[in-house]
Amino acid sequence: MNTPLLIRIAFFLFLIPLLTNAQTAETQKAADSEDGVKYPQFQFKGLFQARYLESFGDNVDVMGVHHSTGDVTQSSFDIKRMRVGLNTKLSEATEVVILVNLADFKSDTKGKVLENAYAKYTFNKYIAVLGGQFRPAFGIEELVPVDIIKSFDFSNQYYEFGKNGWTSFQIGASATGNFDLGKIPVNYSVSVLNGNGKNQEKDNDNGKQYSSRLVFELSKKHKINLGLNGGIGKYSKEKVFAFGADVTSDFRLTDRFTFDLQIEYKRGTNHNLYFSLPVDSRTADVADYQMRGIYFLPNVRYQIDYKKLTSLEVSCRYERFDPSFKIDSNVRQTYTPMISLEFGKNYTGRIEMGFEIDHFDRNIPDTSTYNDNLFLIQFQCRL
HEC profile for 274-339? Predict the structure, then answer.
């Protein structure tokens, strides 16, 4: 019996006792609470993000691509996201979530537009199961919506690990829950994924990717959390893996000043890069192609509450990412200083201004692997 099949069997055996024990008085209480409550309940969500971009790189356009010849578009307005979502609670325990990004219609829509499309059933605080297309828990960024992150966008490593099936929107199933380890609250998640991205008709091979995440709440007062991630699987009959660790914290310095920090490290097989190379130009072992990255994201928030202006935030993310540190290494260092003005609560309105500054160890002409300084002004509204 092969290893992936054993892992699959173990995964479902793990769920069986939890599902059985979930049918307790707590579950019955949840069912009784539906008396007098009308279902289904609907919650509509939306996000609009518009940008002005200006590239200060030599012959580098606003998309970060270098052009050795021809005209280069170095300033442009852009609609980054126009999301519309619907959360439907069919009962106290059952919900269905749909999220689409209409801004994807401005280009080739293949593999785009539909983002979240899953159903979730919560038995109790110890276990909830969901299936469909969702963002599997594999780091800090997977659990935070893009409209409330402390930077313009997710990190480079987030998107690269998404191309390799560990992060971003994937199709599969997951179980999540909470329990206490002594006096330490712990959140867990285990997922089984196709690993070939969103909006795919089917898996593109018989391999699956198995990932897990544990988050330990070390300090409730300062919101210090330690996250551990790990994953194994097969892609096109090749063994792949990924792992990482992250730390978050949030300190209240005064009544109006707060300081929060995110640190995240990830490493894994870059099988997406491996299979994109011609057979005669790559090694025989996919493990020779490994990516790794780390970023630091400090953020200072000052509570203003003056008329419609809620707060002022200043952040600067530093990221170091290498898509293949064992063979043909080319480290990308990215600095993202940003100032943000918040209007309303929970980032209902937000105006951000800053830079994305990229430096590569080695520039490759006529590609996006090229030094660039990009100036951004971003406006967002969220529902």
Answer: HHHCCHHHCCCCHHHCEEEEEEEEEEEEEEEEECCEEEEEEEEEEEEEECCCCCCCCCEEEEEEEE
